[in-house]
Amino acid sequence: xxxxxxxxxxxxxxxxxxxxxxxxxxxxxxxxxxxxxxxxxxxxxxxxxxxxxxxxxxxxxxxxxxxxxxxxxxxxxxxxxxxxxxxxxxxxxxxxxxxxxxxxxxxxxxxxxxxxxxxxxxxxxxxxxxxxxxxxxxxxxxxxxxxxxxxxxxxxxxxxxxxxxxxxxxxxxxxxxxxxxxxxxxxxxxxxxxxxxxxxxxxxxxxxxxxxxxxxxxxxxxxxxxxxxxxxxxxxxxxxxxxxxxxxxxxxxxxxxxxxxxxxxxxxxxxxxxxxxxxxxxxxxxxxxxxxxxxxxxxxxxxxxxxxxxxxxxxxxxxxxxxxxxxxxxxxxxxxxxxxxxxxxxxxxxxxxxxxxxxxxxxxxxxxxxxxxxxxxxxxxxxxxxxxxxxxxxxxxxxxxxxxxxxxxxxxxxxxxxxxx
Length: 421
What we know:
This protein is of the alpha/beta class. Helix content is 39%, strand content 24%. Strand 16 (377-383) and strand 17 form a beta hairpin.
């Protein structure tokens, strides 16, 4: 019987992936699908179009994982070197496949074109490989078994890669993956730092899992968001799900009220669901975030049911004219103050006819701060079901301050809705 495939590494091939202009989305898709099949991804890497370099990466990945998946580098140009590099790593020759060559020629003929000579290289197949047909492009994939390891070569364009994986790779893998499914749960948290979350969570991690189920944990931090990932593997899917659910319950209880989701929903989706459940409609007044809160809220399909609109009130005169903030209040307390934020929230609620008014004013930087109000000072206010105002201090550059401000504002709405539940 062929050896079971339990682990994988993904090599995204293409020099463009090592620039700020191209994002590798294939690895995200493949990681998700491999996890669903019960395969744990050990590593992912983006590798330049350099034959010797890619050869060494393939050898390294093969030394650690049961499955190596490459994406890209199967085109017709000189910098498409995946076939050659993998053949080098395996010490195998390449052969021309007449069937592939004819299908490529037919593809060009169907468009009234003659196949360029450079496309000949796309008909080269590593000795012993199974060809994975590509009816959506000219770059076929390849499945190569070497000892108890497998290498899969996939094209780079997602519209070609994903159908090829679903139709030809996934069924082969399903016959080789162990009866030990992989399950994952994600807990999403805002309003706490990574170290604070980890301090609470660490004692609980040690209690997760049992003799039949292995549970691995990891923590992912970004501005305004902390994620705890629980990954369980075992024989019985129901047992895995039960143990993960128990772990989620313990962690959520320990980290309440900072947990806003354990089912994959983004914060704006949770807020939208809460507003809809109460029948509330929201209006937003933004200064330092300049529409970012409203953008997050309206990213959710159907948000017109709970979002009225908003006002970007950067200048003081806009705060006065559009939101009704008293000029004397601005003069006495300054734009970044709790009285002004509260006036902005009530003003946008009343003038737009909303049930909830939300306002943000602050100093995002890199200048504008003072000893009394340093950069990162942000004031958030809520008006309507509850009157709330808070002054917060955020660290980081302008973008980080704005991102954290948005998360804090949305979470203020969430908490107000929960307290009214």
